[in-house]
Amino acid sequence: MRAFLNELALSEACRASSQKQQPLIDLLSLRAKHPEIRNSLYCSKELRAYQIDGTLDIDTLIRLLPRDNKLSFLHWMTSKGPFFDDDRLADPETDLYNHSNSDVTRLGLGEAAARTVNQGNSCVFSPTTQKTINNQATPLKVQKISNSEPETFINVLNYWITEKLIEYIVLSKPEAKSWTDLIHQVDENFPNLLIGNECFNSLKRTPYNSVISRAILNRLHILNEIAKDRDTSGKLLTRANELYELHFTGKDPLFSDESDGNKTKFRNAMTFPDPTGGGKVIYFWHGKIKQQQQRIHFEWPIPKGAKRIKVAYIGPKISRR
Asked: Could you tell me whether strands 41-42 and 102-103 are parallel, antiparallel, or unpaired per DSSP bridges?
């Protein structure tokens, strides 16, 4: 799965900003804060030459950036990537891709359209501001004109909200084929969680189930986003509060505490090896998966000063034993 930078949206955001370089600073901030975006958002090596308007290009805006931002952007463009130029599918020699009367063949949107047709799993990310209106919709319709095929229109998934893009990137990874595959995906995608070495022991004793695997990724993604969106004192910020209200409260939430009766009855069974590697911990809070009654036990609330949420158990529901 690849996400591609939508240069049309970036240029619109720059034109709409009072300081036209601000969307570049925001984009650098997203890359620094979110490894999912840094590793999976592709652009062209030609981005620096892209025209914002008739007199202004990205390279000019780069020169207006503060020194540290300028160095970060140039490092990205000269060595870090990722870039799609070396294995481009949108061939400008044979195909033409258009969107809203703009030729996007060599741009991220054109490449996303080509990969949507050929591989079926691509999207674009559209940087926006409060003043931009043209790229806050999905899908984006791209016209393909080919030398050898009839004219077609391709619907390209478009994300302009950072959290939605990250969710798509994480959950669109190639599907795990085993619990071992799942464990590798968990290790790669959730840097804000501390997963215990023995966390999956009970799960690995059960037959692999792809529905459960996807649900585990979903629940861990939510916890990872909550752990990430906190201030220096540990207080939940806007996105984390939204996730908490949506998934920790109300009727039948995805995450909840154990009942008082279960806390007494299953206290020993809900005592786990500490994910940090020393001693034992008791975690009653859990994420729920209805398929075959699976549970994810984790530390909650997050202790002051903790940078990650500890996860100690993923496997069959303990209180039904």
From this structure: unpaired
Tell me if 295 sits within 8 A of 313, measured CB to CB: yes
Q: Which residues contact 89 (CB under 8 A, 6 or more apart)?
A: 111, 114, 115, 118
pLDDT at residue number 321: 61
Residue 45 phi/psi, 5-degree rounding, is -65, -15
245 contacts: CB under 8 Å, gap ≥ 6: none
pLDDT digits (tens, 9 = 90+) for 204-217: 999 999 999 989 99
With a cut of 90, say whether residue 147 has pLDDT above it: no
3-state SS, residue 150: coil
Q: What is the mean pLDDT of residues 27-45?
A: 89
With 90 as the cut, is the pLDDT of residue 92 above it? no
- CA–CA separation, 304 vs 206, rounded Å? 36
CB 90 within 8 A of CB 106: yes
What are the C-alpha distances in Å from 62 to residues 56, 76, 152, 157? 11, 12, 37, 28
Q: In Å, how far from its chain's centre is CA 163?
A: 6
Whole-number pLDDT of residue 112: 94
Torsion on CA atoms 74, 75, 81, 86, rounded to nearest 10: 70
Annotated domain spans of the chain: 2-163, 173-320
Cis geometry, peptide bond prior to residue 191 (ω within 30 degrees of 0): no
C-alpha closest to that of 297 among 276, 314, 274, 320:
314
Q: Give SS3 for 132.
A: coil
Percentage of the chain lying above the pLDDT 90 cut: 66
Letter for the amino acid at 191? P
Tracing tokens 């390279």 back to the chain, one arrives at 59
pTM: 0.69
Separation in Å, CA 277 to CA 75, 185, 195: 37, 21, 10
Cβ atoms 309, 302 nearer than 8 A: yes
- Please report which helix (H) or strand (E) contains residue 3, including its range: strand 2-5
